[in-house]
Amino acid sequence: MIVKPRIRGFICTTAHPRGCAAHVDQQINYVTEHGTASRGAFQNVLVLGCSGGYGLASRIVAGFGCGAKTLGVSFEKAPTENKTASAGWYNNKAFESRAAQQGLYAKTLDGDAFSDAMREQVLATIKADLGKIDLVVYSLASPVRQHPKTDVLHRSSIKPLGEVLDIKTVHVEKGEVSAVALEPATEQEIADTVTVMGGEDWEYWIDALLAEDLLAPNAKTVAYTYIGSELTWPIYWEGTLGKAKADLDRASGEIQQKLQSIGGDARVAVLKAIVSQASAAIPVVPLYAALLFRVMKEQGSHEECIEHIERLFTTQLLSGAHMRLDDSGRIRVDDLELAETVQAEVKRRWPVVDTQNLPELGDLAGFRADFLKIFGFGIEGVDYDAEVDPQRIS
Length: 394
Ligand code: NAD
Prior knowledge:
The structure is a single chain. The protein is of the alpha/beta class and 394 residues long. Helices cover 40% and strands 16% of the residues. The chain has a domain at 13-150 and 193-281 and 303-335: NAD(P)-binding Rossmann-like Domain (Rossmann fold). The chain has helices at 17-34, 53-65, 87-101, 116-130, 187-197, 200-211, 240-259, 285-299, 305-317, 340-349, 358-361, 364-374; strands at residues 7-8, 11-12, 44-48, 69-74, 106-110, 133-138, 144-146, 153-155, 165-171, 176-182, 215-225, 265-270, 331-332. Helix 2 (53-65) runs parallel beside helix 3 (87-101) and helix 8 packs across helix 10 (340-349). The protein binds nicotinamide-adenine-dinucleotide. Nicotinamide-adenine-dinucleotide binds next to helix 2, strand 4 and strand 11.
């Protein structure tokens, strides 16, 4: 079949097998050329949420930069004869095949990381194949979580708190800037969002690994968060997602205590805004990101996802690294996004940006290109008019 992008709102319902593989290759090549500083830093790495965005980049840096064996967990859709898989399914296949070519262990377990059944499967795989884990990356982003103890299905919301929020946003496909009124979350929606995207599940994972003695001495764990600029705070940091991320901070403290017995370390790492399946769904963020990318590109400080994670590993996660910590003990690698010169310029453009001047003030084209890349489209060297088998990446 010939695969073209089919966009529905903030999701693309098709993914290109060869394009996704080529996108993974681009990231592997970047790390192979730049990421050697972290070689040997980690031996056995567990990545929860390994198939896209920051989790995939972390797995690539761990595998191809550090030379680590990687066990990944993700929730992806397999292809059928006439329907493409989800992008993450192809990414996993590409990662595994490139790792195999280099003699690197890589196994991916596909299923619900929130379930006890998946935890059991992961623990059994670690015992059988790896021994002990020295880095756990927690990079899940999900709209739902079935709680393993109650079986209740919780849905997260992306809403402001307290009152209706009138704020600017952009329709990514049409390029139209407009004002939206976002209804505030109910107490139940806040609680559900914390249950889905907060720190409880991260704690469950570390508890399970500790209980089975599967963490190596001095093991580390890192979970990803976003704080961003005051421009997005009303919908992000001060909204439902921010409440969930505050709970991640709480969990980090709890886990830090538990890891003391093995000399381990638990950190939340604050990352920059990128285009991912998760972030494209957040209102306001695409407009902010379009302005931000333009300004960071103009000022020469823009980083792609893989560059950002490579910097996280080589400057913050290596043993003995001088970590850039904030008052809450979080690792900050969002320093380039939050640099005074960048934020001052984004804030200058924010009140004046409209549909007409967006192409000049912002980089919506870059945002769209990054969005398509997530699904394997627009990657250099891929023939998008060629027939492909949706069940194979080559
Ligand atoms: P993403 O959508 O690209 O990836 C999410 C991953 O979670 C995928 O591998 C997916 O398969 C997996 N997943 C989702 N539900 C699952 C389940 N039930 N079981 C197993 N796997 C499941 O997301 P992302 O943007 O890379 O976000 C990862 C983390 O980084 C999140 O904590 C997010 O808040 C944080 N972060 C993102 C940004 C950003 O701009 N995208 C910025 C800073 C921090």
